[in-house]
Structures are given as C-alpha cells and as structure tokens.
Design a protein that fits this description.
The chain has 448 residues and is α/β, with parallel strands linked by helices. It contains 13 helices and 17 strands. The protein binds alpha-D-glucopyranose. The site of alpha-D-glucopyranose has 7 residues, from loops. Alpha-D-glucopyranose binds at residues 51, 62, 64, 211, 253, 269, 276.
Length: 448
C-alpha cells in the first residue's frame, strides 16, 4: 500500500474515532445536563394539576363532552358566557398548594377546546376576550406560585378542536386531512407555535405539560422546533413526554405502574374523583388515605404524583378537594424527610410495602401499608442498623435479627415491632439508620 493511501486511511480512522469519542462526550454532556435540570423534579415528588376552563360552568367533561357528542358544540361554547372567575383568589390557590406539600403546579393554559386562559394575540378564543372573566388568569397565579417557592407548570393542548385550521373536530367528523391541505396545516402550525411562544415569553414556565400529541406525528407537531424554542428561552425548562418523543419524562395517566418504570423520570397524573375538571355530579372521591397510599407507591418506584383539582367557574376549589390537599399536606409535613429529596426505595421482595432511600443511601424509610403496625419484616439487609425511629415522633424502636446462621454470609431477617401508639392516622413511616450505604443480599438463599 502506498504511503499516501495508508495516511489517508489512518486519517479517516483517526477522524472516525475522534468523531465517535466526541459524539460520546457530547452524549455524556447531554445526559449530565439533563440530569442536572431534572434534579428539582426528581426531588419534588408532588405536583398539583389544575384543570380550569369553561367546562366548569356546566360541570361537563373538559372538551371531550362536545368531541364525543355528549352535548352540542354550540352548547359547550355557550359556557363561555358563564365563566366569571369572580371569586378567583390565586394567592389562596397557591397557599393551598403549598399546604399540600407540592413543589410544582401545572395549570391548563388551554385545553383541547381552544379557549386560552391568557390574552393570546392570536385571532382565537380566550377567557379575556370571550368570557365575563375578562382578564389574564395565568399571570397572578404564576406570581403567587413564585411567592410560595412553587415551580410554574404550563399544560398546553396541542390539539385545538375549535380552530378552523385544525383537522380534528368531533369524534366522527374532521375538517380536512393534512395531506390534502398542507397550507391549512401550515397555518395551524404557525398558530400553535405562536401561542407556545407567547406563553414562553410571558410566563417562562419551569415545566411544560403538552397534551394531545397522539393526533399527529413529531414532524407534524414540529416537536423538535417546539423543544428548541422553549429551551432557547429557558434552557432549564422541563418538557413532559407528550411531544412525540421530544420530552424529558413519562406521564402514565390514571393507571398505576405495577413495577418500577424503566424510564429515568416519570409522573403519575391522577384525578381526585373521576374527572379532571369540575364535575358536581361526580362524588366518587378518593379518600386521603387512598391518595397517600398511591403517592407513597409512586415515590417508592422513583416517580412523582401530579394530583389534579378542578376549580368551579368562579374560581373556588370544591371542598372535597381542599380536604384531600390539606390532609395530604399534614401527612407530608410530618414525614417530609422520608419523601422529598429521597430516592426510589428497595427493589421488590425486600419489604412488603413502599419505601424510599436517602440520597447518601444510609437511611431507609419503610412505609407501612394499610395502616398496619405490629411486627414488620425486612429481608436481605446486609447492614448493621444503628437506630430505628418512627418518623415525625420521638419513638425509637428495637429490632430482632431472625434466622442468621453463624457460618453463612447471608443476612438474617429484620423484625421490628411497631407499637400501636406510634401509628399515624394515614400511613406510618419507620426510619432505619444504617452503618453505611445500604447493601442488599439478592441471592437465592442456601449457600449462594
Ligand atoms: C387526557 C385528556 C385530557 C386531560 C389529560 C390530563 O389526555 O385528553 O382531557 O386533560 O389527559 O392528563
């Protein structure tokens, strides 16, 4: 082989390996910066979701009621006349959210019905222009959140069934097909990009909660551009996973993951009764005990809970929802160290209940399911326990190691007797301080 061609090959090879290490380094930087920006979210654990819109006037399903033809589109939009926001007290909302223990809150800036809660400059519906509320409802809410140290979240529906340039409308009829009228779709793209930019500039959300991506592809939603525009203005902004592959975390809805989801970050969004928006006929509320049990399960599996409330048209929050948030707040306050800023708990099989682990891994928090106290058992803990305390009390407990065989390295079982007097009305939490970072035996027993 001639020297020149050898040199060329060498150069190509060097170039390749340089390019790939550069690619890897780039990937690492992206990973690290994503981890960094996701840290507050991972620590936050609880967010409050707010579905507020004209659907609260008659208490019908948000947007879906006309889409699914439960009521006519005209009747649905007629609710605009009754949306007053006359008792809206954003500071009270923010105070209740704070009291619940939540660290972020996500409000519907616009649902699939297309009615914006802010003064959009686009030629389309808004509560400012089309309802007696006549004002920007987002600004004072976000300011109240800031005051309380709660992160700003913006729900934004990509779908806009009211917009004349949007293809979808009722469940069995649509206006046109994108392929048949690309100009019309492009007009819609300009419209939604403008609305997103308006929100971005005016309120700089810490978190974007897109919805409705299922109706179109990433290309059609220009997901890449949406993401880039958001991050250009606010590099630390977090984007949920409903942007056709361009989001930062998963959003299981209403259904509970049974095993720990694989994705790094996830958030369960869940209603307090069966509906997102205000629905006076829906009295099927979850009890505070149920909400707390679900919340503990989410954080044990490394996720967050985004718990929804649906205020009335005048801005008051239904009493049942206030009650849930307050009770949850009491429990959160008492058990703060076991919840916020912790990591996902023990893998399944070690303890029959949810758990979390402190960031330095030297403390385990065991959440006693179903309000049980009494004898609890922990398997495969290869640590010395320094201290056991019932969280939020001065109660310190003893433990017994059962079944430890002197010649075997396999740890014995830990039994802890939790007395009745230490019981929390909702869920008791026991804290185990260890000698060193948690070490688990994951073998099959016997000699292994
Ligand atoms: C669904 C629904 C919507 C609701 C949302 C909240 O995607 O379309 O009505 O706002 O879930 O997660």
């Amino acid at each position: 082989m001639k020297y020149n061609s050898m040199k060329r090959i060498m150069l190509i090879l060097c170039g390749l390996s340089f390019a790939s290490t550069q690619g890897m380094a780039q990937q690492k930087i992206n990973q690290d910066s994503i981890r960094q920006k996701m840290q507050w979210f991972a620590d936050a654990k609880l967010g409050i979701f707010i579905h507020w819109g004209i659907y609260s006037v008659n208490g019908v399903d948000e947007s879906w009621s006309f889409h699914n033809k439960k009521i006519s589109y005209a009747d649905y939009m007629n609710q605009m006349k009754g949306f007053t926001a006359k008792n809206y007290n954003p500071q009270q909302w923010a105070d209740l959210i704070k009291e619940s223990g939540a660290r972020y809150s996500v409000i519907t800036t616009k649902h699939h019905d297309g009615v914006a809660l802010w003064p959009t400059k686009e030629n389309h519906f808004s509560v400012v222009k089309n309802t007696p509320a006549q004002r920007d409802l987002l600004k004072p809410f976000y300011e109240a959140l800031d005051k309380n140290g709660i992160k700003r979240g913006a729900y934004f529906s990509l779908i806009d069934w009211s917009h004349p340039d949007y293809p979808g409308f009722l469940k069995d009829s649509s206006r046109y097909k994108v392929a048949d009228n690309p100009q019309k779709w492009q007009r819609f793209q300009r419209f939604f990009q403008n609305q997103i930019n308006e929100i971005n500039k005016a309120y700089k959300p810490d978190l974007w909660w897109f919805d409705g991506d299922w109706e179109h592809s990433a290309d059609e939603w220009q997901s890449k551009t949406v993401r880039a525009n958001i991050l250009n203005l606010k590099p630390g902004a977090i984007i949920n996973g409903r942007l056709q592959g361009y989001g930062d975390y998963e959003t299981p809805e209403q259904n509970f993951p049974v095993t720990k989801p694989k994705f790094n970050w996830w958030e369960l969004c869940m209603t307090t009764n069966n509906n997102w928006g205000y629905h006076p006929d829906d009295t099927n509320y979850k009890t505070p005990f149920e909400v707390i049990t679900i919340f503990a399960d989410a954080i044990s599996n490394g996720g967050n809970l985004l718990l929804d409330i649906g205020p009335k048209e005048d801005g008051t929050i239904p009493a049942e929802q206030v009650h849930i948030l307050k009770e949850l707040g009491k429990w959160n306050k008492k058990h703060e160290e076991a919840i916020f800023g912790t990591l996902a708990g023990l893998p399944q099989g070690h303890f029959y209940g949810p758990s979390t682990i402190s960031k330095d891994s030297t403390t385990i928090y065991l959440f006693l399911p179903g309000q049980t106290v009494g004898n609890i058992m922990l398997k495969g803990l290869d640590n010395t326990i320094k201290d056991i305390q019932v969280v939020g009390t001065n109660e310190h407990l003893q433990h017994k190691i059962v079944g430890k065989v002197s010649w075997s390295p396999i740890p014995g079982l830990v039994f802890i007797n939790v007395p009745e007097k230490a019981k929390d009305p909702y869920m008791t939490v026991v804290k185990l301080k260890l000698d060193k970072p948690v070490k688990l035996y994951r073998g099959r027993g016997g000699l292994s």
